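User: Structure with adenosine-5'-triphosphate, tokens only please.
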Amino acid sequence: MIELSHLTKVYGDIAVVNDVDMHVEAGTITVIVGTSGSGKSTLLRMVNRLVEPTEGRILVQGNDVSKMPAHELRRSIGYAIQNHGLFPHWTVARNIATVPMLLGWDRRKVAARVEELMELFQLDHAQFAGRYPHELSGGQQQRVGVARAMAAKPALLLMDEPFGALDPIIRGKAQADLKAIQRRTGTTILLVTHDMDEAIHLGDRIAVMDGGNLKQYAPAADILARPADAFVDDLIGAVDRPFHYLTLGSVGAAVEPGEAGGAPLAADASLYEGLGALLWSGRKAAPVVDAAGTPLGRVTLDSIADRAARPR
Ligand SMILES: Nc1ncnc2c1ncn2[C@@H]1O[C@H](COP(=O)(O)OP(=O)(O)OP(=O)(O)O)[C@@H](O)[C@H]1O
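Assistant:
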């Protein structure tokens, strides 16, 4: 879907993005993570040509973006940013309709798409379509921002710290919703964050940037098990590593035959959630059920602990 080769951006005499090669598979979420100033936003913004590269090449769906008119390119790629960038004097419906209208869609098709997106993002049409951005909560504005970025069904969505302004609870919900929506729509997402938890939670693959260099580019489990260097290791955080690991596995994968008492755990809950439930209820084991409530066996503290250990 995206092919970056030797991508470089120099400001003054500093390469803020330095010779980056990266291949992003269609239909996946790739998260670019790194400390402040590491070049994440610059890298992202070169994809839709808000920033022009000094050197290197970007192909999106096989097309060299430098050869496409910038305004056309930007209409074909969704872009969502931290403070949502909503037009303050336009209603929610008009904001979401921005790109389809620029593309000259017919009015009924635009209206239907706005309704469809508002439903997808759980914004009641009757209640919210006519409101202005300042009449929404931060979380609602964030959903409108992402709905607007997805309005013209772009195959590619770029997101720059889209959840940065949200409180932790709303943020967790927004991440879960985005993941579910991405799985339904198959949109390819390239997302920038400085938050490793978010990267591990959302990313099919994670790209770690430091000082303009791409330090490691791999699935989360590989980055946790084999960080490329001390910087990546530090970014993960030694204390958090086993817990990150547990967020990647499901209770269902640790089920064993046998019985246990107390409230059951859902097989699709993460091992991290399972660990929390066991510790909090003071149990060493819990029964596990599938989505229909059928008993599958039990999960024990020991089996969860085994899965938190560094793979050999
Ligand atoms: N237009 C510009 N002119 C000069 N330097 C720039 C320009 N834009 C960005 N930079 C510099 O490039 C470096 C990378 O910036 P960038 O915004 O890509 O970092 P980032 O990793 O996204 O950081 P943050 O997480 O703080 O947003 C920074 O040192 C920044 O000061």
